[in-house]
Structure formats: structure tokens, C-alpha cells
Amino acid sequence: xxxxxxxxxxxxxxxxxxxxxxxxxxxxxxxxxxxxxxxxxxxxxxxxxxxxxxxxxxxxxxxxxxxxxxxxxxxxxxxxxxxxxxxxxxxxxxxxxxxxxxxxxxxxxxxxxxxxxxxxxxxxxxxxxxxxxxxxxxxxxxxxxxxxxxxxxxxxxxxxxxxxxxxxxxxxxxxxxxxxxxxxxxxxxxxxxxxxxxxxxxxxxxxxxxxxxxxxxxxxxxxxxxxxxxxxxxxxxxxxxxxxxxxxxxxxxxxxxxxxxxxxxxxxxxxxxxxxxxxxxxxxxxxxxxxxxxxxxxxxxxxxxxxxxxxxxxxxxxxxxxxxxxxxxxxxxxxxxxx
Length: 339
What we know:
alpha/beta, Spore Coat Polysaccharide Biosynthesis Protein SpsA, Chain A, eight-stranded mixed beta sheet, 13 helices, 49% helix, 15% strand
């Protein structure tokens, strides 16, 4: 769709939503964006239909968004296309399965009053009732605590999730946008923000800038998602080795749990041939549990019924993430110079 060239004087933000077969969830996202606390003439909404086979484009058009249609190229390329068309100085990213809170845009735009700020990120909320989805929400909240701590120490953060992120458009374009070699929705957003942060750009964490999200609600889907993220994190680690050591998003306890889970599996395999391996396995399981105490205490305070699934969920997370990372190192995309 061809847009008029003149830039409205009061346009503050361009909201970009990549959408693939999203006709069922997109209406809630667009309705939430229609009822923001800033005037509607201060932002535009761009939906990039990423080769959908349903009526995503029609839904987006009916919802008042500008629609870009393309072949199925993945979310990184879709977001880049939206940024090229955007007319505002600030571009805001969210996803089709997100419902921004009424003051989401107001909050995410506030840091940009300071010219030194290049980007900002918000948080997830959820209203789901399944124990798996509630565990995932609390898992995110543990990460948000780490991100706040990192910002307090470093004065910036280096992990902007595109479900609730904003960039200065020129900074985004000068960086080449998202790396389109990340074909799935995985860590292409972290790759860009990590790269920019280490070039000296300053990002802000704004926990008041929230979107409601539909987390996966089955253990199988959760395991597949963690495997996929682990796979693409291996590629990112090959591109930027520092990411694997100390990014703001991944808790150090999770990295330890992946190692302990691998050692636990080895001990269990050795148990039939070496009886002492049973005690080793028990000790490793105890260490695994101890490493998760901060998350367990968070769950106990916020949503105690989730404790019923915490140990299996932690083990699934560790094994799926670790296996995905290993598979990505061995069989993933090869390292090439960053785009």
C-alpha cells in the first residue's frame, strides 16, 4: 500500500506489527492500540502481512492499519519492511498476539524525551489461567528483575524484546535493522539490541509499558519453543560470543541449570554400571533445585499454585534449551560476518 509522503507534524510514533496467519488474534491487538492514552493522530499503525494464508490482511485493513503484504520472509524481514515505511521518528514494535495496555504507547515513548536514549523496552502481562502459562509469566518476571538490576549497574540494558520495544527510527535503519538470517521469531531482537548496546547506544527498561500476551499453554509447545530459542541463541553466540556470557536477558541460574541437567542425565545413564552414580544424580538434582530458589520464592509469593509444576517445568526448560543450543552449535547456520 502506497502511503502519502507528508509527515503529520504531531506524529510521534509508528507502531509496526508483523503478522503471519494472525486473523484470530490481530483484532484484539488493533482494538487495544485504538484505545491508547495518547491521541490517535499522534501515532500510526502498520501491519506487515508476512505471506499469510488466511485473512490477516483484510482484518488489518478493517482495523484501520496500513497494510504491507509480502511473501513469507519471517518476522525480522517483515519488521524491517515496516520500519522502511514508517513516518515517525520513533518506531514501536509489538506482535499480533499482544494486547497493549491503554498507556503502553505513552509509557514506551517517555524515555525518548532525552536525546541520548536510542531505545526502550517494556514487559509482558497475562490473564491466562493454565499453570504452564502462569509459570512462563513468572519466568519472565524473574528476567525483568535481572534486567532492572543490570540497568541499575550499567546505566543501560542490552535486550529489547520486539513484543514491547521502541527505537529511534534512524538508529534502527543505520544499524541495518534486524538480521534477516534469523528466520524464526527467536532472538533476532536480542541480536540487534545487544549489538547496538555494545556500540554505546543507551536503552531504557520501562516496566510500566506493558502488553498482555498469550503464552503457550502446553508443556510440549513450551519445550519446542525453548528448543527453537536455544538453537538460534547458538547462532547468536557464534556471531557475538560475549552474548553467551553476560546478556541482560538470560539469568545466570538458567545457564547453571542447563549444565546441571546435562550432568544429571550422564549420572543417570551411568547408574546401572556405577551404583555411586545414583548418589551423584541425587546431589546434582539438589543443586539444580537450590539454583532455582530465587524463581521458586518468586512463584511462592506471586502465584503459589504454580509450585505444583515448577520442578518439571524447570527440567523441561533446561533440557530443551540446552539441547537446542547444542544442536545449533553443531548443525545450525554457519558463522558469517554480521550484516
